[in-house]
Amino acid sequence: MNAEKVAVVCKALGDANRLEIVQMLSDGEKCGCKILERFEITQPTLSQ
User: Fold this and answer.
1) For 2-48, how does the pLDDT look when each residue is reduced to its tens digit (9 = 90+)?
2) Is 17 exposed, middle or buried (0-12, 13-18, 19+ CB in 10 A)?
3) CB burial class (10 A; 0-12, 13-18, 19+) of residue 35?
4) 16 phi, psi to nearest 5 deg
5) Of 37, 8, 4, nearest to 21 (Cα)?
6) Pair 13, 5: CB distance under 8 Å
7) Which region, left, alpha or beta, applies to residue 31 given φ > 0 means left and ψ of -120 to 50 means alpha?
8) Domain extents for the chain?
9) How many angstroms separate the CA atoms of 16 and 33, rounded?
10) Which of 3, 4, 39, 6 is nearest to 21 (CA)?
11) Using CB atoms within 10 A of its CB, is residue 40 exposed (0-12), middle (13-18) or buried (19+)?
12) pLDDT for position 48
């Protein structure tokens, strides 16, 4: 991975919600509705 791609990944994982979602998904697939139950975000925000 080049430095630019690493920077993009690091920026994305710098958000606490995104990092927690990645941790949730590391256990396997999850329905979006289950992820939304844990966070105070809208479905369009989750999809983004």
Assistant:
1) 898 888 888 878 888 888 998 999 999 999 999 999 998 899 988 88
2) middle
3) middle
4) -60, -40
5) 37
6) no
7) beta
8) 3-47
9) 19
10) 39
11) exposed
12) 80
Q: How far apart are CA 15 and CA 31, in angstroms?
A: 21
Cα separation, 44 vs 16, in Å, equals: 18
Q: Cα 14–3–11 angle (5° rounding)? A: 15
CA distance 25 to 48: 16
Whether this prediction's pTM lies above 0.90 is answered by no
